[in-house]
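Example protein as discussed:

>
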Amino acid sequence: MPFQSERELILLGTGTSHGVPVIGCHCEVCESTDPRNHRTRTGVAVRTPEGTFLIDTSPELRLQLLREKIDLIHSVIYTHSHADHLFGLDDLRLFGYRLEHAVQLYCEENVESQIRASFSYAFAPHDPELHFGAIPLLEFRRIGLSPFEVLGQQIQPIRLIHGRLPVLGFRIGDVAFCTDVSHIPDESWPLLEGLDVLIIDALREQPHATHFGIPQALAAVERVKPKRTYLTHVSHYLDYVTTNARLPPGVELSYDSLRIPY
């Protein structure tokens, strides 16, 4: 499907670290024929007038970009460094080759350290006989909690807590993406005010040590009152149709390929 807006977020993946279907599971959701129950690992593409950047690089990144017919990625911003948000990074190798310069990676210091450890071949001294494009061309840009700009778009980081791990959500215009969250610190709530769209973690109905369940996500929605909310990082415990039928107005499960203007 072609892009429908000059500025939009495309939800590349909306599933948990296992994805849905889960390998070896034969529950109703995993065997569902509804494509909205087929959830690849979480990530977002953000289209701007100056190009496209990603939020995270899931293990299915290549398949997600092919599915959405996204031909070029200029930059990536990272929420955190867990494998389901990071391990598609080598798929960026093609874009450094096409751009003829490094793909910029915007992340916190601990995320940079994990990327350097996990993809050490991209940062080690290079064999001069390697052909251009043999390894990813990557350039780090350190971020914290201050606003920063990517491809002409201002982005506001939002501190979130994922179990015990500090991670980032991001506000882009009046859309906020807050995956992998089990606690929102007091200082972060004001950054979620006045939203048109909130995309927020809701793993399942029951509580979880490192993720919001539906009750915690709905409590956050009640507090910040966005115009619309999409629940993401969704497990195979939640069927798209039956879950949406019991959610309050303005709240629904997200699905892969959902497009959100900003």
User: Anything to note?
Assistant: The first strand starts at residue 8 and ends at 13.
